[in-house]
Write a structure and sequence with these properties.
By secondary structure, the chain is an alpha+beta fold. It has 7 helices and 4 strands, in the order H-H-H-H-H-H-E-E-E-E-H. It has helices at 10-16, 22-34, 40-48, 52-64, 68-81, 91-94, 171-195; strands at 95-117, 123-144, 150-159, 166-167. It has a 4-stranded antiparallel β-sheet. The longest helix is centred in the C-terminal third of the chain and has 25 residues, at 171-195. The radius of gyration is 22 Å and the shape is elongated.
């Protein structure tokens, strides 16, 4: 599977989709410096009357989804490395292509306030953080070297304060939903190649 280092950010994605201009993005970034408790998407929505739903759609499809295949592949590589039953399973080269499609997503505005107890009694707010969390159900379609695809459904969380999406399944859940199918196809392909050497 080809590796991509590309990481799109919401500002350039909004410009690329024609929702705002490059000049409007610069204005929004200046406002974000003055009001860091707002996300860039919130500022764009307020300043330029862009519907929040449109920003959410662009965020999911242009920012989060392109980051997901390498994140998922890293998890599968870790699981394969710990698999004592299949020592020679190079999952990176076995997976030829991975497609991810949103089945469902929901967006939550998270506001966190931290307080610190004062010596004289009472509490002082020390920090105020705002972020957007996007929870997604993602359909996977994985093409393998054996020409047998694997499909699955995973849950993904993206927090606007973090660098990338996070697959929410535990390793055990990911084994059941995707990994064991990949391993089974690999073992069958290896057995067939052993029976019919070229």
């Amino acid at each position: 599977m080809e590796k991509t280092e590309f990481r799109q950010r919401i500002g350039p994605a909004l410009v690329g989709e024609g929702v705002i201009t490059a000049e409007q993005l610069q204005t929004a970034l200046q406002h974000q410096k003055r009001f860091p408790f707002f996300t860039l998407g919130q500022i764009v929505s307020i300043l330029f009357r862009v519907p929040v739903g449109q920003i959410d759609e662009i965020n999911v499809h242009k920012v989060v989804l392109p980051q997901l295949p390498p994140v998922l592949l890293a998890r599968l590589v870790k699981i394969a490395a710990e698999d004592r039953f299949t020592k020679d399973f190079d999952i990176k080269s076995f997976i030829e292509h991975m497609e991810v499609h949103v089945q469902r997503f929901e967006v939550i505005n998270v506001v966190a306030r931290d307080y610190e107890k004062q010596d004289k009694g009472g509490y002082l707010r020390t920090e105020y953080k705002s972020s957007i969390q996007t929870r997604m159900k993602i359909r996977l379609h994985i093409d393998t070297k054996a020409n047998e695809p694997v499909q699955g459904l995973i849950s993904v969380l993206h927090d606007s304060r973090e660098r990338g999406p996070m697959v929410e399944e535990t390793d055990e859940d990911l084994k059941g939903s995707v990994y064991f199918d990949l391993r089974k196809i690999f073992v069958e392909m290896t057995r067939r190649q052993g029976e019919n050497p070229r």
